[in-house]
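Example 3.2
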Amino acid sequence: MRVRLAFAMALSLSAALRTSPSWSEDWPTRPVTMVVPFAAGGGADVLARIVAQRLSQILGQPVVVENLGGAGGMIGGNRVAKASPDGSQFLLGSRADAINQTLYKRPLYDLKKDLAPVALIAEQPNVLAVRKDFPADNLADFIAYVKKNQTTLRFGSPGVGSTGYVDCALFNEAIGANVQQIPYRGGGPALQDLIMQQVDYLCALAPPAIPAIQSDLIKGIAVLDRARLPSLPALATAKEQGTDFKGTAWFAFYLPKRTPIEIIKKLHDATIAAINTPAVQEQLAATGTFVVPQEEQSTEYAQKFIPAEIEKNAAPLRAAGMFIE
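Structure, written as tokens:
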């Protein structure tokens, strides 16, 4: 009995030391893990690896990128939500997290209660892309062909709950088409199958879509944003082609909910320094990724923005009757 009591007291003391202000202020004293909840090769992965390199230099410890895909990003998010709040791992979350809170009837975690926002980082537009031999080169012809052949076509997505899935599904509904979806564990595998002509089209985040279009491996039909991409200046937006549809993804860092404020602040300050590094911004812009404005980079802004995004994304999902048991 005494042995058990002593062991319990030792555990309590260890926990107290690990969460004490002095320990928090020393963070990080070892490598930390950035969990990316999608497979390698997608837009989130590209962003993560560019930022992680600079973040490692600023923090003085390696930032290891770990891809953990599945359930539209919820598998990776759930691991961080349930992780020890010691700063050893943090999540590269996205708009998919906000989507999943409504899309799934029983999401694996509560985004507002189980994760602590650190900062918004960047935004990426989706690009409507098709296989190389698709018989359409512009949005009007694409819509006409899809509506006529909807029963035989298939669109790929980075997984149910991803922005690529939701935006393509909402776009299909907007043009009056019902097309079979083929889900993947991330944007990279979905894009690879589009290149191999295993699917007909997808709404791909700009970073993986740009080099594939530039290399003539696939065709770009429209940028689903208000402005053209600097790396694809000839590709018109959906609005320019007569369809006012926007599909973009934002990204943010999260820590487990009970993480000490000292760690949140230190990760926030290092993140802001990283994304405002000119060389980092140049690398990101070349991939079609755009750092959020400085007025949107505070932790306080993220804390207000994310609950509002949950409600904003809930409206079209409910209107379309989109949900998963």
